[in-house]
Amino acid sequence: MRVEALAFAKLNLALRVRGRRSDGFHELESIVQTIDVADRITLTLGPGHQLAVQNSAGPFTEPDLAERAAISVLAAKGAKRGIGIRIAKTIPPGTGLGGGSSNAAIVLRVLDAGIPPSLGPRRLAAIAEQLGSDVPLFLSGGRLRVRGRGERLDRIASGCETFVVVVPYERCETAAVYAAYDRIQTGVEERELALGENDLLAAALHVAPGLRRVAAAVQEAGELYAGMSGSGSAFYAACSSRAGAEKAAERLRRAPFAAVWIAESTPEGGRWERGDGG
């Protein structure tokens, strides 16, 4: 069996930190939208027991999320299969766009469908949760309200925005951003989520001060709202039309500090483009 798939990125359209959990992680509430910026993944199932992963963002010293997802599915099914995974990256790692998590979700879905018996949605979601906080949302995709560590998901109505996605060449590490947030935050705010707001923004700008000019440029470009995705370093501007997004993107591309894309919302976290039985 051979499957080619697209693993979409996501934007955090709003993010609130609701405090610290007893397990040491942060309790989050976020509105997330998957978008059509995507990594391309080719998976093959065949004879043998070897798992081979090629990731254009690698090499890695430890198994990446996609490889860990494959190992988890095989373990849950008690199966041994020859599996090949080839990942052509478009979504840059470490930008808050969820590329690694999206890759893992596609691998979970494809291998669960290709290796009987099916684990079912609940068990697949439990595996996704163990792999990482953003992996469960990509099993569904669309526009979601996400709570906890990412395990509580509610689908909500998507808007009609077109997004300009701005990916700075300067990056900030997730762990460093959360550590800075814990140092500088003055209390948990209980107000409702508002599109474009992100409680981690000040911490990200503290960790990577060079992002300030990106944040300012994006705020100016957003017709509807603008913000930072996840813990950074990617930003977005929401526009009311494709034409408006193209104009905003043209202005933002004049600055030499970031890559700029135009993206549309997707109703799913990933899409199978072609599959050959076997």
Q: Any overview of this molecule?
A:
With 278 residues, the protein is α+β, with helices and mostly antiparallel strands. The protein has helices spanning 65-77, 99-114, 121-131, 135-140, 174-184, 201-207, 211-221, 242-252; strands at residues 2-20, 26-46, 51-55, 82-88, 143-148, 152-155, 162-168, 225-228, 235-239, 258-264, 270-276. The strands form two sheets. Strands 1, 2, 3, 4, 5, 6 and 11 form a seven-stranded mixed sheet that branches. A four-stranded antiparallel sheet has the order 8-9-7-10, covered by helices on one side. It is globular and about 55 Å long.
Percent strand equals 25-35%
DSSP helix fraction: 25-40%
Distance between the termini: 4 Å
Low-confidence segments:
none
Global shape: globular
Report the major sheet.
7 strands, mixed
| Count of distinct strands | 11
Rounded radius of gyration (Å): 19 Å
What assembly state would you assign to the polypeptide chains in this entry?
A: single chain
Order of SSEs, N→C? EEEHEHHHEEEHHHEEHEE
SS-derived structural category: alpha+beta
Main attributes?
alpha+beta; 7-stranded mixed beta sheet; 278 residues; single chain; 4-stranded antiparallel beta sheet
